[in-house]
Amino acid sequence: MDKGRLLLGLTYVEGSVSGSRGKRRTVRFLVDSGATYTLIPKSVWEELGLKPKKQVDFVLADGTTITRSVSECRIRLLGEEGYTPVILGEETDEPLLGSVTLEVLGLVLDPFKRELRPMRMRLA
Fold it and tell me: Which domains does the chain have, with CATH numbers?
């Protein structure tokens, strides 16, 4: 897949997500290095058969606290694949790619080129 694309200062990347049923869907994510977890839209997680594992409170940029269900799924982007926790979005929630998923996949957002690239791994 292509590297993250720049659009009005925002970076988007396409990835595929799958659940335990083996269904796979392609999602266009906004890369949000300030977000902890990745958010999957409701129509996608319902189709994949994802089930809530716990409820988590999240603080939005404006200070508002919201509660969302969290599950996990398999995600693939830029040739990397792994399991990651995901927020189960509600009707109006947009897909976000968060920092935990980026770390799981060994990727980092280059702030100058606004694209994803492999992370330099450190042992110590």
Answer: 5-118 (2.40.70.10)
